[in-house]
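Fig. S4 source data, part A: sequence.
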Amino acid sequence: MAEYTNVEKPFLEKLRQAHWEVIDQGQGIPVDPAKSLRSSFGEVALKAEFMRSVGALNLWATPKQLEYCYERISLQGNKKLLEANKDVFRMLRKGITLPDKNILTGEENPTVMLVDFEIGHTDRNSFIAMNQFRVDTPTTAKSFIIPDIVCFVNGMPWIVIECKDLYTAEPLSDAFTQIRRYSNQRDDDYYAIDEGKESLFYTNLFNVITHGTEARFGAIRSEFDYYNNWIDIFPEKYKTVETENGGKHQEVIILGMFNHEILLDIFHNFTIYMEAKPGLEVKVICRYQQYRAVGKMIEGLQNGESFQDRSGVVWHTQGSGKSLTMVFLIKKMRDTFQLKDYKILMVVDRIDLESQLEETAHLAGEKVWTVSKKSGRAAHGRDEKVLAELGDDTADLNIVMVHKFGINQDMSADALFRLGVVPRYETFDELSKSEKVLILVDEAHRSQNGDMSNNLFMAFPRATRIGFTGTPLITPRHKVTTAERFYQKNGEYIDTYKMNDAVADRATVDIKYIGKSTSDEISDKEVFDLEYEEIFKHRTEEERQEIQRRYGGMIEYLESMNRVKPIARDIMVHYVSEILSNGFKAMVVASSITAVVRYKVELERLIPEFLAAEQAKTDEERNEDLIRRLQILKVRAVVSMQSNNEPAIITQVRREGFGKGITDSFKKDFNTVDNGKSDTGIGILCVCDRLLTGFDAPIAQVLYMDKNLREHDLLQAIARVNRTKKGKTHGLVVDYFGITKNLNRALGIYTDADAEECKAELVEFGEYFKDINKEIPELELRYRKIVQFFEANKISEMDAFLRQTITNPWDEFKIVEEVIEMAGNLKLRAEFDTLIKNYFDRLDLLFNAPTVQREHWVPAKRIGYLMWRIRYHYKDDTLDLRWASAKVRHLIDKYLVHIGITERVEEVSILSEDFPLKIDSLYRGSKSKASAMEHAIRQQIKVKLENNDPALYRHFKDRLDNILNTYQGNWDMMIVELEQLRKEASMGRKEDYRISRIQAPFMDLMTEVLEEEKTVEMEQKIIDLTGFIFKYIKDGLQIANFWEKNDEKKKVAGQIEQRIRLSGIPSLKSKNKDLAMQMMMLAKNNYSEILNS
């Protein structure tokens, strides 16, 4: 089997090289639990290994005490899986406190350590990996599950690995689905709730899905999009393979995560449980760049000879998890003897960032102090301390908001500027000369942060300073300033994780921009740009008044209705057609609060007009999903209060947009089904200065920009649309101000010398932030690759077929059938799937461009038709368009409806008399007709019979395989035989006056394995036996919630076993347990029919 040979076996071999004890059980279904170190297949852990390993770590513990510990982690009652996993995680990390005492020392309530996490002690734990780990699940539709590989630490299953052959359809997605099935996490109502073994995942750290060439890891309950690659290996001493070009290969994840030291470190210091959104808790495992950055910071803190040597800057791009990196650093420091007594100060310069960082900091597992002017418990429930208290030697965690220590402590620098007040700051006294202080500065590049945090640096002159920046330090002056403040040497960072790294890792999406031309181009733009920049450099009152006098006129111009109204309409046209149709949301950035309010009012005024226009379209063109979203769409403005005398309209709009509920609504998916959840309808947020830093809303896909944002303000603002979300392939910036016309100037690059010095940074930024018009050649290239793919597989004229220039319909049919035959090769089908995904992703980006509509809408429709034909023929559900954007799906769905194919209506069943007519309408050649009939019959009997009547299913399957083997090449004769089989299958089970139709499947299970001669007397004996067994089953099913009551299930299974043993039929007697298990599964699958019989 290719899966075992190419993926599973190499994985095991690499684990062996990484010093895991490997038990390779080969292929096939295991039959002896002893080979997997267990007494039965019902056990999910290696109990004997647990008792031995944990006993060796706690030599004083008695067998009874070890048994108590084993039961504590194994028996979690009715807890949901994540809750059970979290509780067991705490036990594994902290140990289990016993209710009795240490018999050697007399200590009351001693703690048993289940794992030795101490550095240098990894060899005191056991590490075992085995494949084909069978776990019996007798009460589910399938009697057991067999994860490909399970890795055990001290006998406890920490990692489940699912391997798939590279050339199966959607191998990683298929492996992910299998992991979900094993852990009972599939939420689709189609699947039974109980189909796996949740207890296998109580001690789970993470899971791995792999096809060899690529491997990803994810925690329980993680969605597929949050299964990540581990593409670098740290510490460097373990990097024995090249990771530059092949970092996604499974060998890298093995060396990077399965190394004993690293694995225990990830468990102990780099795993947290957090609330992703209200009501949704998730388990988070660090990404590789977080582990690497923390490792480097720890090395620096341990080995740096001076506080300057221990300082530096971490550049991890926006959206890559910098705040969690700080949390992991704190956890690791508290776990490192040399560093656990550090006082830690986390410095921010914005109130919203303070709250956000405070919430995150609590994940470090210790009290977080907020530094203020007074101590005690604040009204908002936070623990506060005064500045002077930071001078003590306590190893605690503090958040410092630098604005609070100036004269204007309650207002941000932006607010002070708008009020025309020059901020003044008090100088801190020296509080401590200790070198056991670490200052972590978030958004270290921000100039105002620098001015104020320098006071804090003076208060702790010998503290280690580590700055975090999420935007590249492009300009020389920013590099120099940051280097001076954080003792950065030769421009070297502690660690870098750049924009394009994050895009390649699927941690963020890249961003495209559209430069819009407006009819009112600003005159003397260069002078205006320079004056805007000067605002932030001069602080004297005279300069401030002069610049505001001139600049005020420009602001009035930018917020004028003559400018706002046409831009608002253009925004709405683009948003409705390109963004809202895919279910995403938008932000509008304007130059002033007045402009923000006017954009809000105008955009909301346009909603009814666009709704009516969509409703007026023909059935073929109308988009019902878009209509439902427009019906609940709202626009809100999030702005600060100007003054007590602000205009009434601003007050009204500001109040509408006030409060956390507004941003929470914006972050939610549109809910057009439940009218009670209309708070999801806020689809556009209009802002001036608010929410442009630290605001994390993955649903935001586009930023409409009508403000002169520069340098880091620009970089941070555009990063609002780089967060990942299912179906979101890119972020988009639509520029109405004209910044993108001269990006170098917007980024602070004014001279050729500056550009040359920053060439590398500018090239990278150019790859990340691209003009959308440059993507049209890429779309054409992706289309040509599809055509070349078919030509390479001897299907010519594909370009003509896709562009509908072939005039002979028989030639078109011939091409379609050649495509279908080619798709019988799973490798080619998977390759085709990848090509069309790449093509449709780029088509979505450029969907409504006139040239794209002319050149690519028709080929896209024809490709969608080919996908439907392949899917219909091979019954391959992976070839649907669920992954495509709503715009592309709508285009293709409407086309399929137009040509008479309705995806949402069930296909014609093989049981229908119309089935032959359907086959004749879709196929011309005998070979393709025979192939279509084979796949239709195979799929139909599998769905209808495999679980509900397994014996009859095997009968028809054997008949089908025999026909295919006998008439291979004789397609006409094969069609005749397949038609006869179809008719037999459509009739189903033949009537038997001796036994009811619902009892017959139970009888067949025994008849199949009967070895004695099938005489009339023997048949009657089995019929009578079936009657007794059926009565036991039906009586059991009368009990309320029967399938949830293990004692009742065991009772019925025992009755079946006993009746078979007493039947007097030797061949059945020897198989009584297996037959009883199969009959219980059959009873569950036919539950309703049995009760109604």
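Fig. S4 source data, part B ends here. The chain has 42 helices and 28 strands.
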